[in-house]
Structures are given as C-alpha cells and as structure tokens.
From TrEMBL:
It comes from Saccharopolyspora halophila. It is found in: Cell membrane. Residues 55-237 form the ABC transmembrane type-1 domain. The keyword Membrane applies. SUPFAM superfamilies: MetI-like. The lineage of its organism: Bacteria, Bacillati, Actinomycetota, Actinomycetes, Pseudonocardiales. The chain crosses the membrane at residues 55-80, 92-115, 121-140, 184-206, 218-237. Its main location: membrane. Pfam families: BPD_transp_1. This is ABC transporter permease. It is a multi-pass membrane protein. InterPro entries: MetI-like, MetI-like_sf.
Length: 255
C-alpha cells in the first residue's frame, strides 16, 4: 500500500466518522454540518466571484508577506551568522521580540499602519521572519571550517566566500525555513483578517459567515479552502526544494 493511498484511506475514514457523528443527532447539524454539506458549499464557493476575490486577497497578501520576509531574514541571517560581534550585540533584542505572539500586536499594527491590507502583511512578515532567520544562522554555524579555510587559501575574500561556500551550504536550511514561514505567514494573514475584520480575505469571509445567521457550513467550507491553500503551498515549496537541491545531503524526509 503506497504512502499516498494510506493517506487517502485515513482521510476517508475521518470523513466517514464525521458524517456518521453529524447525522447521529448528538450535535445539531447547524453547529456541525456533515462533510457532504460542507463539500457542497465548497463547490458553490468555487463559483462565487465574491469569494474568489477574498481568496485572491488572502493569497496575494501571503505572497507579499513571504517575499518581504525572505528579503529581510536571509541577508540578516547571513550577517548575524558570519559576524559574531553583531550577533552577540543583538541577541537580547531578538530573544525579546521572537516570543511575542503576532496576533497580540494587532491593535498596535492597526494604529501604526491602519486597518487595510498593510496590517495583515506587516504582522505576517513579523511572524514569518523568525524561522528563516534562525535557520540561516544555524546553517552558518554548522558550516565546516575546512571549507572556509580552503576558500580563503585560494585567495577568496569574505564576500566571495559567502556567495560561493556559505550560501550553497545554507540553501537547504534556508528553504526549510521558508517552508515553515510560508505556513506561519498564511496563518497570520487569515487570523488577522478574522480578528481585525472590516476587509477582504478568507478570514473576513469566515467572520461574516459565523456571525448573524451563523452559517457553520460556510465557515467550514472557507476553512477547508484555507487548508487546501496551505497544503498546496507546502507541496510546491517541497517540490522546489527536492528538485532544486538534489545535491544537498540534508535529510529532506526529516524536514
């Protein structure tokens, strides 16, 4: 039995249990609709222009946030990982900022950047920077000193050594950090849309569906879309990592 088939059987079993429990009468179907109802709403939403615009708004905000995170975290990680003095000097502030929950910063973000798309992008960037940053620093910590010494013995300067030795070594770790940050960024974008409200996106759609009439079928259908988007993003990045870094000795199955 292949890995994919086992996964599909597990998913099918979960859906059957959910369907049976929802129709058993233990919980009213308006609170926990069966998966057949949720999938029917999902199909309807895929033909709804308004919902598709919400989906595009979420994916676009996610893409912008991830791109900004990479542009910030990779150069900063290379700097902190290669210059010990700067790393020691900034350790306290980094360790102070890193544990702060991003959603707790929503009121501050609204005051500083407004209630538009900038808020969810800013918070997603804040949350997504850390996995990339620390993976990059860790990669430089793990580099073999002999490789660096060999490069320097051939007359390569610090900058050229960084691009020809350190970056190729760090690439698998950086891509792993990007995969982690991609998920974090999507969670923060949807969460900010849901908690801040007043805008477009999957989170705003779920918020509107959960209030008023309390359409849990629409809530779960919107949540299903968010899950599918996250799954596709992770699969795409994993494919890029496998095909683009075949030479890497990092155990990708463990990532």
């Amino acid at each position: 039995m292949t890995r994919t088939l086992r996964g599909l059987l597990g998913l099918l079993g979960f859906l059957l249990v959910w369907e049976a429990f929802s129709r058993s009468g233990f919980v009213a179907q308006r609170y926990l609709p069966p998966p057949t109802t949720v999938f029917a709403r999902f199909a309807q939403l895929m033909g709804d222009t308004s919902f598709l615009l919400d989906l595009v708004a979420t994916v676009l905000a996610w893409a912008i946030a991830l791109g900004i995170s990479i542009a910030i975290a990779v150069p900063l990680g290379l700097l902190l990982g290669s210059v010990r003095g700067i790393r020691v000097a900034t350790r306290a502030i980094i360790e102070f900022l890193r544990p702060i929950p991003s959603v707790a910063l929503i009121p501050l973000a609204i005051v500083l950047v407004g209630s538009g798309p900038e808020t969810k992008i800013a918070l997603a960037v804040y949350a997504a920077v850390w996995p990339i940053l620390f993976n990059t620093i860790y990669a430089l910590d793990e580099i073999d000193p002999v490789m660096v010494d060999t490069a320097r013995s051939f007359g390569l300067g610090r900058g050229r050594t960084m691009f020809t030795v350190a970056l190729p070594h760090a690439a698998p770790f950086v891509l792993t950090g990007i995969r982690m940050s991609a998920t974090v960024a999507l969670i923060l974008v949807v969460s900010t849309e849901f908690l801040a409200g007043g805008g477009s996106g999957l989170g705003s759609f779920v918020l509107e569906a959960s209030t008023g009439a309390g359409r849990m079928d629409l809530v779960l259908a919107g949540t299903l879309v968010a899950g599918i988007v996250g799954y596709l993003i992770n699969e795409a990045l994993e494919l890029v990592q496998k095909r683009g870094l075949r030479w890497s000795s990092v155990d990708r199955e463990a990532l």
